[in-house]
Amino acid sequence: MDVTCSAKGCHNPAQWSLLWNNPKLHTEDRRKTWLACDDHRQSLADFLGARSFLRDVEPVSADPGSTPGSTPGSTPGSTPGSTPGSTPGG
User: Fold this and answer.
1) CA pair distance 50, 56, nearest whole angstrom
2) I want to staple 7 with a disulfide (CB 3.0 to 4.6 A). Which of 26, 40, 48, 55 is the partner?
3) What is this structure's pTM?
4) What end-to-end distance do the CA atoms of the chain give, in Å?
């Protein structure tokens, strides 16, 4: 299965998994996943980092669903706690 970048409007293949959680909503061990191409890795990481949500950045694995508690390919604009339309990389 091909995975694509989570940045708004981007259809490039994902190269990176940005693992994050919102400590107000998720347990410490829960990890959500945004996928990023090389062009959007930094902007998506900056967006999550500014909110203290970013936990780790890893290369995309062969099985994007292998991280327990993750949501592979979730769209950044639909994330609780983010403002619709404010997603970087768009």
Assistant:
1) 14
2) 40
3) 0.68
4) 24
Q: Which two tokens stand for residue 67?
A: 């991280």
What are phi and psi for residue 54, nearest 5 degrees? -70, 130
Question: Quick one: average pLDDT of 32-53?
Answer: 97
- 3-state secondary structure at position 36: strand
CB-side neighbour CA atoms (13 Å) of 19: 18
The CA angle 32-19-6, to the nearest 5 degrees, is: 75
User: Beta partners for 32?
Assistant: 20
Contacts for 62 with CB less than 8 Å, ≥ 6 apart: none
